[in-house]
Amino acid sequence: MTAAAETTSRSIDSIVAVLDQFRQRATYGAVASVLKRGPRNLMQGRSRSQRDSWIVSTVDGMPTGYQPDQVHPEIKSRETIFRTGEELAAWLANPE
Question: What is the value of pTM for the model shown?
Answer without folding.
Answer: 0.89
